[in-house]
Design brief:
Helix content is about 15%, strand content about 45%. With about 140 residues, it is an alpha+beta fold. The chain folds into two domains: about 45 residues, no CATH class; about 90 residues, Alpha-Beta Plaits (2-Layer Sandwich). The strands form three sheets. It has a five-stranded mixed β-sheet with strand order 8-5-7-6-9, with helices on one face. A two-stranded antiparallel ribbon has the order 1-4. The protein starts with a strand and ends with a strand.
């Protein structure tokens, strides 16, 4: 299991106290006051720059614009892959790219869709470089 260090964590609210940090499995969750915008960046270990991250989101994640939102967020990051609905009610996302980009991309989705996501299971592996872009899969 790899661990990453945070380059920066910032709450965008002017008079907010510092957000607390919860570290697990190489990712960072940021807890702050409800409604506050959070910015955070992760720094990947040297020599291991690219990754494939598969995420299965559960909760109320279908029928709420989850895939559309993921595609719009993907435009802000240099990632490739797909997002699709699964028959069991979950949404699967596979993203490849620079580890920093991939982790921040997924974090942005989790932030935007936080009211709908109950759980996200993440699996990191070596990239296959099979995707030319990021899109909705069916």
């Amino acid at each position: 299991m790899e661990h990453y260090t945070a380059k920066g964590i910032t709450c965008k609210e002017k008079f907010c106290c510092n957000p607390s940090r919860i570290w697990y499995a190489g990712f960072v969750d940021v807890v702050a006051h409800p409604g506050h915008a959070i910015e955070y960046w992760l720094m990947a270990p040297v020599g291991k720059n690219r990754a494939r991250l598969q995420v299965c989101f559960s909760g109320t994640v279908q029928g709420v614009g989850f895939r559309y939102t993921a595609c719009n967020i993907a435009r802000r990051f240099q990632v490739t892959g797909f997002v699709k609905n699964l028959s069991d009610g979950q949404v699967e996302l596979v993203a490849e790219g620079d580890k920093l980009e991939v982790f921040n991309f997924v974090a942005a989705i989790e932030e935007d869709m936080r009211g709908y996501i109950v759980r996200s299971e993440k699996t990191i592996s070596e990239p296959t470089n099979e995707f030319p872009s990021f899109k909705i899969a069916f």
